[in-house]
């Protein structure tokens, strides 16, 4: 196996160090790049082939990677939904928070990228646990109403009524005091981004229009 094909648990992008915890996701978004880009992300192979890393493996990988170059944030975001691995996510985020308290590395933020279905996935309210360890959350809403969301995000049947749950998750994250809550919408999908922005602001969150990646 050469370096190109070794699956990346940790990878770099911009000023961030990213953690790829899983390839599993209850959605099959029409705009998801993991299939379009054949599980590659800018030269990183994010295909874990079912070998999801444990907490210890992620912590060791971070200890190897973080000293290599400056970074401003550590982000839970791979080719899958990180809250599918809630226990690992919380353990690793708590470890990062501890390192930050010890000033082991220059200051950085801890962010989660999510589809907002974490409460449904875990059958419980996960927001208080998340709020205790992360600083920022980016939530993909991507639609102004439930029918559009179902059409674009294509959730598994169990979650087909999940749109309102995602909006509620956004509200909960704001109320829990997570410092930066950003709601995103991918452009050029047919969704009404202006209306998504209004929903984000009504929830007390910020809005981000994400580019449709079609290369
Ligand atoms: S929620 Fe994210 S990982 Fe899941 S299918 Fe959609 S774009 Fe892909």
Major β-sheet, in short?
Answer: 7 strands, mixed
Main-sheet strand order equals: 1-2-5-6-7-8-9
What is the ordering of alpha helices and beta strands? EEHEEHEHEHHEHHEHE
Overall residue-averaged pLDDT value: 95
* C-alpha termini separation: 27 Å
The CATH architecture would be Alpha-Beta Barrel
Number of strands: 9
* Domain tally: 1
Question: Strand percentage, roughly?
Answer: 15-25%
* CATH C-level: Alpha Beta
Query: What is the count of helical runs?
Result: 8
Question: Overall 3D geometry?
Answer: globular
How is the CATH topology named? TIM Barrel
Question: Roughly what percent helix?
Answer: 25-40%
Detailed description of the structure:
This protein is of the alpha/beta class and 215 residues long. The protein has a single domain (10-210), classed as Aldolase class I (TIM Barrel). Helix content is 33%, strand content 18%. The chain has eight helices and nine strands. The chain has helices at residues 33-36, 55-65, 86-101, 118-122, 127-131, 146-153, 163-175, 193-202, and strands spanning 10-13, 16-19, 40-41, 44-45, 73-76, 109-114, 136-140, 180-186, 206-210. The strands form two sheets. Strands 1-2-5-6-7-8-9 form a seven-stranded mixed sheet. A two-stranded antiparallel sheet has the order 3-4. The chain is globular. 34% of the residues are buried. The mean pLDDT is 95. The structure holds iron/sulfur cluster. Iron/sulfur cluster is lined by residues 25, 27-29, 32, 34, 80-81, 115, 140.
């Amino acid at each position: 196996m050469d370096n190109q094909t070794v699956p990346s648990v940790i990878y770099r992008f911009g000023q961030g160090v990213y953690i790829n915890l899983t390839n599993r996701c209850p959605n099959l978004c029409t705009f998801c790049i993991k299939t379009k880009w054949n599980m590659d992300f800018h030269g990183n192979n994010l295909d874990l082939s079912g070998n999801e890393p444990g907490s210890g493996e992620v912590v060791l990988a971070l200890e190897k990677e973080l000293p290599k170059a400056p970074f401003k944030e550590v982000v839970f975001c791979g080719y899958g939904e990180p809250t599918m691995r809630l226990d690992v996510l919380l353990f690793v985020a708590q470890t990062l928070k501890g390192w930050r308290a010890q000033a082991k590395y220059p200051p950085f933020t801890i962010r989660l990228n999510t589809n907002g279905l974490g409460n449904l996935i875990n059958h419980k309210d996960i927001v208080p646990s998340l709020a205790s360890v992360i600083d920022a959350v980016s939530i993909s809403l991507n639609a102004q109403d439930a029918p559009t969301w179902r059409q674009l995000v294509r959730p598994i049947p169990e979650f087909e009524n999940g749109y309102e749950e995602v909006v509620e998750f956004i509200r909960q994250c704001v109320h829990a005091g997570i410092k930066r809550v950003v709601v995103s919408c991918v452009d050029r999908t047919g969704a009404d981004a202006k209306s998504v922005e209004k929903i984000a602001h009504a929830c007390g969150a910020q809005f981000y229009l994400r580019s449709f990646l079609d290369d």
